[in-house]
Amino acid sequence: MPDLPYRTKAGEPLLEADHIDDHAKGGRDYPSVMIALCPNCHRNKTHGQDGPALAERLRVVAASLHGRWQKLHPPR
Hints:
Blueprint: E1 16-19, E2 34-37, H1 39-47, H2 51-72
Antiparallel strand pairs: 1-2
Helix pairs in contact: 1-2
């Protein structure tokens, strides 16, 4: 994904795993409610003024990505 603004020293995208609902406050530890974010977006979602609205948008994205992954990897 060339449009990601941050890169590791190896040139890979710099992403952080985020629990859309704060894990420390009881958020579930399931892939369907987790998403990878760049450090600034992660901080904004957790501490920013528009964090709650961003969390709701991310919830939809995470659920969609998880649904697509499940179709490609059905349970055995």
